[in-house]
């Protein structure tokens, strides 16, 4: 039996675009401390990084596999 893959699907918290991602590796934001983290797409990460850098913050660097499927064995 071969191993499978799993994608998670949701809307980006930043722009609302429907996206697929690895739920363990995708960049996310917690809108409020008592809320669960919400995923953020690659376009929003690219859009926010110049502002972060200008404000003296480190850029967000997504994992290489953040938008790839999660191996079934890692569920």
Keywords:
75 residues; alpha+beta; two-stranded antiparallel sheet; 1 helix; 6 strands; globular
Please describe what this structure looks like.
The model has no long low-confidence stretch (mean pLDDT 94). With 75 residues, the protein is α+β, with helices and mostly antiparallel strands. The strands form three sheets. A two-stranded antiparallel sheet has the order 1-6. A two-stranded antiparallel sheet has the order 2-3. It has one helix and six strands. It has one domain (5-74). The relative contact order is 0.29. The protein is 17% helix and 21% strand.
Task: Put the structure in a nutshell.
The protein is of the alpha+beta class.
The whole-number mean of residue pLDDT values reads 94
Which overall shape is indicated by the principal axes computed on the Cα atoms?
globular
How many H/I helices? Answer: 1
Approximately how much beta-strand content do the residues carry? 15-25%
Give me the secondary-structure category. alpha+beta
Across the major sheet, the strand order is 1-6
Into how many domains do the coordinates divide?
Answer: 1
Helix content: 10-25%
The whole-angstrom Rg is: 14 Å
Let me know the number of strands. Answer: 6
Which regions contain 5 or more consecutive residues with pLDDT less than 50? none
Major sheet details: 2 strands, antiparallel
Strand-helix topology:
Layout: E1 5-6, E2 8-11, E3 18-21, E4 28-29, E5 38-39, H1 42-54, E6 70-71
Antiparallel strand pairs: 1-6, 2-3, 4-5
């Amino acid at each position: 039996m071969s191993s499978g893959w799993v994608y998670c699907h949701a809307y980006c918290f930043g722009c609302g675009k429907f996206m697929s991602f690895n739920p363990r590796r995708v960049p996310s934001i917690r809108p409020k401390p008592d809320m669960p983290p919400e995923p953020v797409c690659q376009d929003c990460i690219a859009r926010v990084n110049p502002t972060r850098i200008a404000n003296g913050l480190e850029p967000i660097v997504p994992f290489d596999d953040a938008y790839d499927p999660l191996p079934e064995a890692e569920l």
